Amino acid sequence: MNKPKHIAIIMDGNGRWATAKGKKRVKGHEAGAEVVRNITEYCAKNEEITRLTLYAFSTENWKRPRLEVEFLMKLLEKYLKQELPNYLKNNIRFEPIGDIRAFSSSLQKTIKHVKEQTKHCDALVQSLALNYGAHNEIVRAFNKLKNKENITEEMLYNALDCKEDVDILIRTGGDKRLSNFLLWQAAYAELFFTDTLWPDFTTKELEKIITKFKKIERRFGGLNNG
Ligand code: IPE
Ligand code: IPE
Ligand code: MG
Q1: Does residue 92's CB lie within 6 angstroms of at least one atom of ligand 1?
Q2: Top-level CATH class of 6-215?
C-alpha cells in the first residue's frame, strides 16, 4: 500500500466561508488558521506522514486589497509566535518555502526564529508556503545554478525550496487548478479536489482521502503487476 509521506494542501475557500456566514473575509482566514493547527497536529501524530506543505500565501496574492494582505501578514506573525510552544511540544519542524524577502523585517525575523528553534524536531516537517509560487521557485533555482554546466534533475531539485516529491495533493474550495503550487514536486502526486471550504476541512476528511490514496495503483509510467 502507498505511504502518504508528503501531503501538500492548497487551503482555499476562507473568503467564501466567511461571506456565506455574513462575516468579513478576514474572519475566514482566522478560522482557517485554526484548521492549520488541527491538521498539522494530526499529521504529526500519524507516523506515515513526514511532511505537510501548506499553501498559505502565493506570489499572486499581493494582488488582493491592501487591507486583506496586511491582515494576512499580521495573522501569520501572530500564528507563528503563538504556535512555537506547540511546535516544540508536538516535535514539529517549521520550514518555510517561498521568497520571504518580500515580507517586513519583523515578520522575516519571526519566521527565521521559529525555523531555528524547531530545527531539531522530527515528528513532522510543517512547511508553510509563504510568498510562494512555483515559477518564482524554479527561476530562483536556475539563478543558483547559473554558473554550473550539465545541470541534472537532481541538481535542479536540490536548488528548489521544496526538495521532496508530493504524494497527495489536496485542494479545498471546489476549484480544480494548481494556482502555481509545487509544479515540479507534484509531477506524480495523486490529486484530490474537494468542495469543502478550508475552514470546514476536518481530520476525518483527510483520513478518507488517505484511505483512498492507499488503494490507488501508482504506476509512475511503468506497468502494473497484475
Ligand atoms: C485561501 O482562501 C487563503 C489565501 C489565499 C490566503 P481565499 O482567501 O482564497 O478564499 P476564497 O477562495 O476567496 O473563498
Ligand atoms: C491559492 O488560492 C493560494 C493559496 C491557497 C494560498 P487562491 O485563491 O489565491 O487561488 P486562485 O486565485 O483561485 O487561483
Ligand atoms: Mg481562493
Answers
A1: no
A2: alpha beta
Among 9, 11, 14, residue to substitute to test ligand 1 (most atoms within 8 Å of Cβ): 14
Collect all residues with Cβ–Cβ distance below 8 Å to 106 and sequence separation of at least 6: 77
**Measured distance CA(203)–CA(142) in Å, rounded:** 37
* Cell numbers standing for residue 101: 524577502
> Is the distance from CB of 160 to CB of 138 less than 8 angstroms?
yes
Domain boundary assignment for the chain: 6-215
Q: Give mean pLDDT, residues 50-72.
A: 98
Question: Cell 503487476 maps to which residue?
Answer: 225
Cα of 13 to ligand 2 centre, how many Å?
A: 9
Helix axes 25-45, 66-89, angle to 10 degrees: 20
Mean of pLDDT values over 70-88? 98
Question: Which pLDDT band holds residue 225 (cuts at 50, 70, 90)?
Answer: low
Give this prediction's pTM: 0.98
189-207 pLDDT per residue, tens? 999 999 999 999 999 999 9
Atom 7, ligand 2: residue with shortest CA distance: 12
